[in-house]
Specification:
alpha+beta; NE0471 N-terminal domain-like; Double-stranded beta-helix; 2 domains; 9 helices; AlphaKG_dependent_hydroxylases; TauD/TfdA-like; carnitine biosynthesis; trimethyllysine dioxygenase activity; oxidoreductase
Length: 410
Amino acid sequence: MCVRKEMLAFITRVASWNLKTIRSKNDALEVIYFEAGKQSKLIMPLVWLRDHCSSTKYYHFQTNQRKSNCTDLTNLAKIKNENDVRVNRDDSSMVIDWIDGHRSFYEIGDIIGKGKKKKEVAIEKVIDLWDSKTLKEVPRISKSNLSLPDFSVKLFKYGVVIIDDVEGTAEATEQLCKSLVPVHDTFFGQFWVFSNSASEDEPAYEDTAYGNEEIGPHTDGTYFNQTPGLQVFHCLTPAKTGGDTVVVDSFHCAKLLKNEFPEDYETLCNTKIPHHYLEGEVPGSSIHSLSLEKPVIETDSFGNITQIRFNPYDRAPFACLSSSESSASDTIKFYEAYENFAKICHNPENALTISLKPGSVIFIDNFRVLHSRTAFQGYRQMCGCYLSRDNFMAKARPFLRQITSTFYEW
C-alpha cells in the first residue's frame, strides 16, 4: 500500500462521536475521536473496514447478510493514497475510495459500535449465583400470570424456575413447553413419559433415571456434542416416599473451587475428557452417543464460565496412559481437581431441595444448574423434555437487554 504516513486532520460537530483525526498506519487507519468528551483511539484495519462495507453491492439488507465470499478481501482492502480517505460533508461519516474503484461510506458511530472490543464484564454482575442461604427457594411463576419476559429473566438470572398451576398431564406439559421454546430432539425422543416401572407406553432406557436409586448432582447430555440447553421435568405421580429433586448452581460451585483451589479450577478448564452413553450388558457393545474433547468448565475470552459439563456417571474411559511421567502427573491432578469440585457440588449448603408435585413444572438451565434425585420407594411417574437453548436465547435476548446492555450472550 502506497499511503504516506501523514496526518489527515479534521474536527467534526458530532456530539456523541466527535471525530478528531485519522491517519494511515501500515494497513490500517488510526482514528482519534471524542466519546462523551473523552479522547479515545482505535486502530481500524483496512481489511476490517472493507469487510464491513454496507453498500448494496456487498450487503443484502433484507436478509442482513454479506454478499462477499471473502476470496479476494485482502487484495481489495487497499487504497492508493491519503486522499482516498476523507470526511463527508456532514462531518459525522467518512468515505473510502478503494483501489478497485469501489466507494464505501461509514458512519463513525456505527463502525465504532460494531468494531470496538467489549470491556470485560464479570458474569456475577448480571446473573445471581446462589446457594441454600442466598436463594431460599426456586423462583416460581403461576401459569395464569406467565409471560415470556418474566420467564426469560428468571431463568437467565437463576438458572432454574418453576411454573405452577399446570394441568397434571403429559399433554398439558408438552403444550406448555412448546409454547415457550422449541424442543431439542435426541434419540430419547422429543417428549418423554417415564417411571421406575415401565409399561408399553413408557419406553425404558438403560439409564439410572429409570430406576429408584439416588442420583447425585449432574448435568444431562454430556455425551452429546450438542449438549441439551434446557431440561424440563413434571412429576405426574409422586413416589410414596423420597424422590425429591435437588438443584445446585454449578457456576457458584466453580467460583468456590477457583477461590479455594485455583490450580484445580484451571485444570478443569484445560483438561478435555470424553463422555458416552451405552446400552447393553457388555461395555461398549452399543454406543449410542460419544462426545470427546470437552472440558468440565468452559469459559469465554474474559474468563466467564459459559458451561459446566459435570456427570461422573457418564464419563467414558479416560485415555491417559503413556510412558510420560508428566502425563501421569497431569492425570493425577485432574482426578484431584474433579474430586474437589465434586465435593463442593455435593455439599448440602450449595443445594436446594424441591418435592415436585403434579401441577408444577421445573425448567433447568442444563449449562449451569446441576440436578439430582433422592432415592424413593413406590411408583413414581415423570414427564419432560429438552428444550433448545439457541432458540430460547433468540426469543429471550430482547428481554435480557433490559437488565444488561453488556452481557446477554449467556
